[in-house]
Amino acid sequence: MRILVTGSEGFLGKVLCRQLLDDAHEVIGYDIANGNDILDVSQLRTAMTDCDVCIHVAAIADLYIAEHQPELARNLNINATKSLLEIAEELDVRVLFASTVCAYGNNGVAVCVEESPLAPTEVYAESKAEAEQLFHGKLDNHAILRLATFYGPNMRSSLATSIFIEALKNDEQIHIHGNGLQTRCYTHVEDIASGIITVMDSQQNGIYNISSDEEMNVINLIELIAELMGKTANTLHVEDRFGQINKSKISSMKLKKLGWKPKYDLKTGLQTCI
Length: 274
Prior knowledge:
The protein is an alpha/beta fold. The chain has one domain (2-271): NAD(P)-binding Rossmann-like Domain (Rossmann fold, 3-Layer(aba) Sandwich), CATH 3.40.50.720. The chain is built from 10 helices and 12 strands. A 6-stranded parallel sheet has the order 2-1-3-4-5-10, with helices on both faces. A two-stranded parallel ribbon has the order 6-9. It is globular and about 55 Å long. The two termini are 35 Å apart.
């Protein structure tokens, strides 16, 4: 297939493009790093012409940037997605939209499935949840992919897992926001990419969670990384950040029924980063 990948030079985008190329697909990368503007409708239409699928990964995903530049986040995460979807509908291109499990927020659900209510707590998740609304009534032809918190080699330096690893490498103190009992289902970037491709290859549309089912809190994550590195963590609890999600346990059973299986458990996955 001929596949357009937006955000192709980002952390996930690079891994996704490599896996697609390994599967012998023709990949068209679209990224600001290469002079491609996700807000330029004409440029985007040209790139999408004759494509079978568009995997829309490009976004303002950094929580700090989204909180401090909310209009920028909304413009790129919502308005650009609206234009992209309109072009895709015009050209009969299937869109796989990368959303986030953060959209579930603090919804009070013990294990979130695709039908669980959305209760985003901060700008990034709010913008993704709002962008999802653009696809309602159109999910016979497109897919929404709610991605877990992911990590891996060459991850963004602003990601918590990266911050913990670098602090331990340099024997620096780690600041833990709040009580450190907040949980996430940390998922390796290779497994996120393979999950996206599983949905693409299946020709199934609708909404899919892509997440490990291995839930871990922040304190235990730091302890595990320290153990793998042969270090002792020096930690300090600081004020919790605004919009903190207290618990995030995600089910990907729907995706597993399509044949997806994570390659990495958390311990094995972290070893690829250290």
